[in-house]
Description:
Elements: H1 2-29, H2 32-43, E1 47-52, H3 55-62, E2 67-69, E3 75-78, E4 81-88, E5 91-97, H4 102-115, E6 118-129, E7 139-147, E8 151-153, E9 178-180, E10 204-207, E11 210-214, E12 218-222, E13 225-226, H5 229-235, E14 252-254, E15 260-268, H6 276-286, E16 290-292, H7 295-304, E17 309-315, E18 391-393, H8 406-438
Parallel strand pairs: 1-5, 1-6, 6-17, 7-15, 14-18, 15-16
Antiparallel strand pairs: 2-4, 3-4, 4-5, 6-16, 7-13, 7-17, 8-10, 9-10, 11-12
Amino acid sequence: MGGLRVVITVALLIVFTVVCCNFETSEAALSKYDYKMISKVNKDGPYSGLLVSKDSELQPFLKSPNFHLNSKISHVVLSGRRFYIGHIGDRKMIVAVTGMGMMNAAITTQMLCGLFKIKHVLHYGLASNADSKMNMGDIVIPQYWAHTGYWNWQKYGYGPDDELAFEEEGYFSRDYGYLKFADYYTNKTGGKDKDYSCDNDLNNVWYQPEEIFHAGETKDSVFWVPTPYTYYETAKKLEVVALEGCTKEGTHCLQKTPKVVTVKKGSSASMYIDNYAYKNFLNSKFHVSSCDMEGAAIALVCHQHYIPFLGFKALHDDYAAPNPVQPPSCSPSTPPTSPPPSNPPTSPDSPPPSNPPTSPPPSSSPSPSPAYPPPYTPPSSPFPSSSSSPSLYPSIFPFSSPSTPDDDVAVIAEEKSCIYGLLIENCVKVTHEFITKYSHMSDDVSVSSF
């Protein structure tokens, strides 16, 4: 009996030690000083939150003449993330960089919404264009956001009529569609006037909804995270904002004057999409206009907190772009045919042939070059060397290719940086417009709007 008491006592001490260690670890993440600063900031709340993914996207906003940092508490650093405290006119704001990708975006948004008094969250940045009706430089404002990087990857040999792994338990579904990799072979051939159907070990990936955990320990699932109706309707008023088509210096211009457009859907995933076929799939399957790496994560966390969210995405490319090289063709596999032996087969007891086969002499003429890959001529810089006139940024522009000379790559990088800066400046302009004219409307948004 005494031994049992000793075992129980030791076990309780271990549990107590683990709990204390965990408590100390959690306290170390946010110190008493941090909570004191948060409390001071919240006394002046609520705030408009603004999140961007990179510091290069934030600096134009911080340096804009309309934004001013708080004279008493200009920023708070929490778990390595800096939250700037400031205002535009009488509109108080908390601004932060999330870092790239869905996880960083979700973590920072949770900190913003969970620690501070926030009435709504805004987000701007760059996105890839998935809509043929949009042009490079356009700023799209989606009504719905989807995380299109959450998949159930189906086993090879199974198809649309086969149940997914853990579908019966309710963890996954086939409600939102799938991508079949075998559909994306190119140059398929299979005989005269007939395509050959290629198969692929990668099979299918099925798109999945996200789980949402609300207060009161209730949860549901959502694939399309909505922007509150009143916010989306108000965002339509931003379509009259005149965006800049050239840099401030006037040295670089977009081919078409950009515009603000409210669209139905945008998608996000922790992947940079520079692939026309996949963008085309996302548009045809889900009717999305943009592909980015953070928007849906921010929208999802805000939705969980019943905090309105509105995102502005500047399209940094055009919908279609040529491939630098052509992919190989997919042909039906046929068993290899062996050439007839040069000498008849012999038995082990047979004498060796008097004239053993010899290799043919090398040909004096070179063998023909393979048809793949085709020769690729690197593009010369589309920008004029003279800085006296503005250069037009092309609607379809291969930023680099496998054979682009180093000098051209440097020029391309410089031009791209200038244009990206222009796009972010336009995002800042739209954000200012919303903050100064429409940010008051969050007072009228109820939970039912979600």
